[in-house]
Amino acid sequence: MTSKLEQLRAMTTVVADTGDIEAVARLKPVDCTTNPTIVLKALGTPMFADTVAEALRWGQSQGGSREGVIGAVADRLAISVGAALAELVPGRVSTEVDADLSFDTAASIEKARAIIKAYEARGIGREHILIKLASTWEGIRAAEVLQKEGIDCNLTLLFNKAQAIACADAGAFLISPFVGRILDWHVKAAGKTFTAEEDPGVLSVRAIYDYYKSNGIKTIVMGASFRNTGEIEALAGCDRLTISPQLLEELEKAEGKLERRLSPETVTRVAPIKIDEKTFRWMLNEDAMATEKLSEGIRAFAKDLGALRAMINKEMKAAA
After folding, report:
1. Can you tell me the distance from the alpha carbon of 129 to that of 42, in angstroms, rounded to the nearest whole number?
2. What is d(CA 112, CA 116) in angstroms, rounded to the nearest whole number?
3. Is the per-residue pLDDT at 1 higher than 80?
4. How many Å apart are CA 312 and CA 96, to the nearest integer?
5. Burial of residue 123 (number of CB atoms within 10 Å: 0-12, 13-18, 19+)
6. Quick one: which of 287, 267, 277, 266 has its CA closest to 158?
7. DSSP structure string for the chain
């Protein structure tokens, strides 16, 4: 019998949630997703030592404020990691807009355009890139503008149905509802463990999938942030799943039949819901888990972005 990973690939597009070049080459996902945490980790490996050195030299030649140069070097490094991944996957690479722009629609749009332009300068067309934006009201509005310009977006840090509906209304190409982080919150809040079938993160993605498919929404549902293979198996059949190399390898070694759990033909029918800004903010406010995890996620990504900028500043000072 084929491995559970191969069975999963027959019903779901498998995406690697990593900046590990060797793992991507070995596991052969269709797409790759990155975030500031993944980029920072990748740049700390010997494989990217020359890339970091080149970006620092480039930064030393740039004019403008110190802060502006450091930001430009950080962007260049994120694009370099994305470009290396783009050479290995046939599909898309997701690159994230700075987390500290999560509540600034205009600045998010400007940064997204700059990311696409930087990839195009390296010969990588926008059809191979997804712009990642936090699923704040402002991030969703930025995605709405970018989608109309032909720049496809991945709305991340998504924990709540209101976020998913607003993303669909904005015409987002893809959403990344988080599974494991939802589970983390409920385990801590309830003081208990959950089976895969009880897992609040799994149930959240299933509800979003049902809503999308029963209302003819084309936005792709890509489950993310998994804690174990049980969560992945419970979402077999989802449009896409972005999975860490460790869990991909566990699935590659696992045998036995993998049952399809999600299918457009078997969804629970859900009536459409109208979401305006007031409704969005209220529904998010009423969901303590989503409110806390969205804020926590933005802070964590911003922290790692800050760490990258600090590293660049330190190296540039040492080279001066």
Report:
1. 18
2. 6
3. no
4. 18
5. exposed
6. 287
7. ---HHHHHHTTSEEEEE---HHHHHHH--SEEE--HHHHHHHHTSGGGHHHHHHHHHHHHT--S-HHHHHHHHHHHHHHHHHHHHHTT-SS-EEEEPPGGGTT-HHHHHHHHHHHHHHHHHTT--GGGEEEEEESSHHHHHHHHHHHHTT--EEEEEE-SHHHHHHHHHTT-SEEEEBSHHHHHHHHHHHTS---TTT-HHHHHHHHHHHHHHHTT--SEEEEB--SSHHHHHTTTTSSEEEE-HHHHHHHHH--S-------GGGPPP-------HHHHHHHHHT-HHHHHHHHHHHHHHHHHHHHHHHHHHHHHHHH-
Residue position matching structure tokens 């509802």 = 177
The reply to whether the predicted model has a pTM over 0.90 is yes
Which listed residue (4, 132, 161, 213) is catalytic? Answer: 132
DSSP string, 85-111: HHTT-SS-EEEEPPGGGTT-HHHHHHH
CB 4 within 8 A of CB 241: no
Cα–Cα nearest to 87, from 75, 99, 79: 79
User: What tens digit of pLDDT does each residue of 222-279 get?
Assistant: 999 999 999 999 999 999 999 999 999 999 999 999 999 999 999 999 999 999 999 9
What tens digit of pLDDT does each residue of 16-30 get?
999 899 999 999 999
The predicted pLDDT at position 34 comes to 86
Distance CA 166, CA 170 (A): 6
The pLDDT mean for the chain works out to 95
In which residue are the tokens 């969005």 written? 280
- Tracing tokens 């059809």 back to the chain, one arrives at 127
Q: Which of 135, 142, 29, 24 is nearest to 81 (CA)?
A: 24
Q: Kindly give, in sequence order, each residue whose CB lies less than 8 Å from that of residue 259, ignoring residues fewer than 6 positions away.
A: 233, 236
132 catalytic? Reply is: yes
Place of tokens 């029918």: 269
